[in-house]
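PT: before anyone asks, these are the final sequences, not the draft ones from last week. 478 residues across everything. Please model them as a single complex and drop the result in this thread when it's through.
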Amino acid sequence: MLTIKKTNMATYKFMIDGKLIDSEKSFEVRNPATGEVIGSVAVSSPADVENAVQSAKKAQRSWAAKSDEERKKILMDVAQVLNDNAPYLAEWITKEQGKPLAGPGSLFEMQACVGWTQVPASLDLPVEVVFEDDTRRDELHRKPLGVVGAITPWNWPLMIAIWQISPSLRAGNTVVLKPSEYTTIGTLEMIRLMNTVLPAGVLNVVTGDGSIGALLIENKDVNKIMFTGSTKTGRKIIDASKGNMARLTLECGGNDPAIVLPGTDAAKIAGDLFWGAFINMGQTCACAKRLYVHENDYEAVISALDAVSAQMPMGNGMDDGIVLGPIQNKMQFDIVKSLVDDAKANGARIVRGGEPLGGEGYFYPITLVADIDNGTRLVDEEQFGPVLPIIKYKTIEEAIEKANDSDSGLGASVWGTDLNEAARVAKQIVSGTVWINQHGAIHPMVPFGGAKDSGYGVEFGVDGLKAVTQPQIISIKK
Ligand code: NAD
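LR: through. Structure below.
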């Protein structure tokens, strides 16, 4: 990944203590839609990681000493900066990550960055009196944890960074972020702009691959790790946290099931089901990744999804009218291809797609795969791409059992007109969220997190804010 710095392209620098820092080493970033080099990124050294953590540690005291009202005001200013620069940052997301400007794409991602900053900025964690009698009064106060080490993936790079940064800052922590090596430039630009209104050292960013991420999370002065990424890396983070006892919020992979109840109107749900499975080309932790349909409705649901898929233009996300972009990187493109090839080799029916589109960029078509079951790789593994296996079931019990037959437990959905029956089914699924008649419908006030190997801890809302605090009991004798 690392190359010697080239001089004929812009090099984006990382930021420590409010200053942009250059480096001897850099790596190139390419547009996944065109293969073009779009810039290079200065790579942080181990010493830079240490400097960033120390800068955050130093800044944390005065940041925590500010009143809640002051921090809320500054965060609202940050939201304004994100809003004002949304078109600029959205272009970076599209050029670097691939999702289109239009549709549920990069402008939508920027709106989420604004909202997920405003909401924690407006929340409070008042002192709770947890016990009181004639002899004593016990109060639970919420204190900042200190320095948060934040590690992000490449699928929703700016939004997920904001999920980690905004509540952490609201609660009085300071942050060192290490963005994905696949989508660094947009994040660097966002952090640079956020720093125009934040005090120096409160929000720092270092760059590089997983080895730099590992140095950050192992640092003895990191008190909390906010991680979003694969379950494999999540396990390494659990191991590393033994050293510094950092508190963990782990948002890891998902393999969300969606169950369509018998007798559901296929045409009515097809549009929402499509985006539930294919937002960001399926490169979303909580996308529907396995669809279970009753045998009587099986062909109708497949046809309805096929019809919706046919309406969705794919291409370079900078072009007008495009709503689906490329897969973000070669590694993910190869995973998707190999899972579909395996399904084909095992007799599955390809309803649509199934072969790379060829040409420049990592374009793979929307692919619907029928006549497939649990026990095949495409169903059992997280595809994280534009492919949906559709599995036929005979009884609801069978659908629930197959939905739960996974190590993942991030999200799930149940689709049907009888909301009581949908809720009855939903309660039997082991996952952090079950949506009814929608999928992936996250909200900044609603806690979000995984069950099983999808991680632990929650983000968003009051519970997400509590997760970046240390509870302290003040116990008073009367
Ligand atoms: P990844 O685990 O490969 O990388 C994520 C980040 O971890 C990157 O910044 C990487 O450099 C860093 N990293 C790698 N090794 C590290 C180490 N030893 N120590 C510290 N940091 C290290 O994941 P990815 O491929 O970027 O993202 C895709 C995965 O993320 C999918 O499984 C997806 O489901 C998951 N995801 C989960 C959520 C959620 O909220 N649950 C959201 C988005 C993505």
